[in-house]
Amino acid sequence: MIKVELLLFDLDGTLIDSRADLARSVNLMLTDLHRPQLSEAQVAGFVGDGVRVLTYRCLTATDAHQQPPDKELHEQAIRLMHQHYAEQMYVATQLYPQVKATLQHFKAKRKAVVTSKEERFTHQILEHFGIAEDFDCIIGGDTVSARKPNPLPVITAIHQLGGTANQALMVGDSENDILAGRDAGAQTCGVSFGFRTAEELQAYAPDVLIDRFDKLIENFF
User: Residue 10 catalytic?
Assistant: First the structure.
């Protein structure tokens, strides 16, 4: 087992299963723009870098010639995505199994959410699912000047928690979480129940790879 004092968590695909609501919001946005629909799996593959990159990828994928959007269309898509997601984000989204119990197990540890989702949506989601009080700080995609895989969000969270990188663990479901955690000097834990497969995550060599959230208890203390 590995000793840690600071636990940093990604949100989508790690704490919450938001795949269906993200896909629905994307497809409502695409409908507004008279674009074809994308599958849930396609949208999931585009998630992880924030709404600006998500909309850019979705617009490029649905262009007849796979051309990226111009600035005006891209900004319109972002506005529409924000509007639809605000209305759709609790339709099917739920916590992954054992999230609450596992967070309680680690209640003596300082904890943060480090996500590319906007801070306002992150706060709302954590409050909605009754886990906001489990976290000492939240770093969203608009909190600092860079997003994962840049290590700045992780470094900022570690600083706000009052610790050091060698005390920290970054837990997430994507390569961005592993790269950001590692480059910040933290331990990393990939979760294979989110938006990436175990094989995809293994390519980035996380320190630990788990297939259930509560397996954090078996690997860290």
Answer: yes
- Choose, from 10, 173, 177, 183, the residue flagged as catalytic: 10
pLDDT in tens, 2-43: 999 999 999 999 999 999 999 999 999 999 999 999 999 999
Q: Which of 88, 115, 134 is the last residue of a domain?
A: 88
- Residue 147, SS3? coil
Provide the CATH number for the domain around residue 194.
3.40.50.1000
Considering the domain boundaries, does residue 1 fall inside one? no
Token pair 């339709």 in the structure block, residue: 91
29 contacts 93 by C-beta, under 8 angstroms: no
Q: Pick from 27, 62, 88: which residue ends a domain?
A: 88
Per residue in 128-155, pLDDT (tens digit) is 999 999 999 999 999 999 999 999 999 9
User: Which phi and psi (to 5°) does residue 171 adopt?
Assistant: -115, 125
- d(CA 97, CA 42) in angstroms, rounded, equals 24
The DSSP output letter for 62 is H
Is 175:204 a contact under the CB 8 Å cutoff? yes
Distance CA 32, CA 174 (A): 29
Q: What is the CATH number of the domain that holds 33?
A: 1.10.150.240
